């Protein structure tokens, strides 16, 4: 019986092949190592074996070894030092590709031990006779600055970069500008940066001339870098602004969308300094075709272009005023693209193209995508609000959609009609019966709330308004909070407009809202309405039936100052998110460490003392919950100010010492027990400790607030619950 040899692993086989005497076998082994590394296998144990194959004349093999080094340099920093001699030797190689590869790899390794060996080869490569090596070395300076800024400044690399801006090769100029810009951004983020810091990259007139010369000869990456630098330049006068715009306009014809958007950014920034109206119109006219061309890109690029176009239209709506048809949605557009197109179509809508837009939106409302249908109907409403002359046509389209009896279409149309009624009050009252006829179709809170608002607003013109609202009153406690709030307000409006026929329903809803509803917002609103109606219906009418200003669509979705800032960030994430970069990059991000620092309390005892000082200071504050008109006794504090803080109690001592087992109970027990309240008067009840109102208000009666006699039907005040103790009052906690 033979004994089998122990099975060797894959790494062992690779190690054997890496040390083979045959060149092809070694090269094949390196390829297999890279393949394993690419799929996530750990081949860091082969580091010494791979490193042995670094010294070779085969450029392909050298690239593979460098790729391996870049991946595992962080995990094997001690072994990387063994490759330094080869790197230095390769930086003097006759082949410029090898020289550039060596300097680029040394810059990417980011190992502390190799940085000091990088300076001498980098000095030579920055002055290399081959432009490919020079442009690679320029970017290496930016990487070195990120690791060790003082090393870059001490070795004079920044001065060399500034000299390289005048290089005869445009690609060297572009990479130099990219490197200096990265260093400028890194230096600017430092809290105490001097304006004369050598790391800053101010663009002068001489640098501007060199950048404009190199612009047309660069690759697309280089053009973007130069255009971003031009966007930072501050023109001295309008002539210089015009010159920059004229030199940048040819970039609109570039095939790359990033170059086009970067050129648009430069034009938008420097157009601010142009005084000639004819030139501004010419630039705006030339901006339209490249933006339209971007819409033939893949969906992801389209979306980025649409977000930027949306921003541009907020500043200059005339850029694409004649190009609405290119934004019509295609059947295979993703939803995110369709939504952006809808927004832009509404922005471009005018009296000359509104018919085509409405026809298109009506088609979209018959799509299968529910979200898109809803947004299309909402766009019809926005068009009606934006263009007064087209409002009637929009309403007819909405009525046609309501006739389809499709649930989600009807509900969104009702929501939109509510906005149209707010914009054009008393104009389209004839369609209210149609809306009310679809009451049974509504099952979404927003649609229900919208129809209730319409019924309440036009209660005096709807004969059966009390019956319609009665449906919602019957199911009041089962409805969502927005519907409850809207029902409550609508019933009060009905009562103020038809007091004789609706006293019962308003009394019923106020009782339900104050006793059976678990939402504090609904209860508070009910108490306020009850108080108003029971004391001064005239004031209630002034509050509830107040004249509201008509709504309108804002021309911009961001503040004007922020819009100017975002236009300077076109083609970046800031212009896509429509937010400044600080909100999602760098200081705007909240890391785990900073979050921990924010949540760590400085000292519990200090915080407790501070809280007690605040309570003591509050003794001098007026009691905002005291609605009673009875004058306070002079010289005596009232309300919260009358609350005694018992700082000598054991509970207070425990709380201050930080040894409390139940801080909440101890905090409550610090306050003195409430004084025995005076018995309520025969004609008043105590609601929330201070809302004293009559139980009934017959015609000609007077309220407990000393208000004049009320000559209209009023609502009974909420009764006091039987055997209610003073401690049950809101302030009874203290």
UniProtKB/TrEMBL annotation:
Annotated compartments: Endomembrane system
Coiled coil: none
Keyword Membrane among record annotations: yes
Domain Clathrin/coatomer adaptor adaptin-like N-terminal: 9-536
Biased composition (Low complexity): 707-719
Entry keyword Plastid: no
GO molecular-function term, one example from the UniProt record: clathrin binding
InterPro entries, per the entry: AP_beta (IPR026739), AP_complex_bsu_1_2_4 (IPR016342), ARM-like (IPR011989), ARM-type_fold (IPR016024), Clathrin/coatomer_adapt-like_N (IPR002553)
Pfam families linked to this entry: Adaptin_N
Keywords assigned by UniProt, alphabetized: Membrane, Protein transport, Transport
GO cellular component: endomembrane system; membrane coat
Annotated region described as Disordered, given as residue ranges: 699-734
Family the entry assigns: Belongs to the adaptor complexes large subunit family.
Name of the protein in its database record: AP complex subunit beta
